[in-house]
Amino acid sequence: MKATRSPFIKLNSNGSVLDGGRAACGGILKDSDGKFLACFSANLDCGALMITGLWRILLGLDLTLNIGCSHLIIEHNHVVAVQLCL
User: Is 53 domain-assigned?
Assistant: First the structure.
């Protein structure tokens, strides 16, 4: 994870979809020094990578707001999910 500039924090997340429609995701928030701030994980009842990608962003944004941060960098590997959020 590349360092960010203060006051930004960075969200890194990942997700997985299994046969049968089960999915899970998780993410971590770190400050500009790479220090752990918070994390999340969730079991999802959806079998689509797109939906899992959107949940990762939503849960990460929710966690970011809950810790009181308004400057966020999202690193995400599902480009379409990110574009849908813009």
Answer: yes
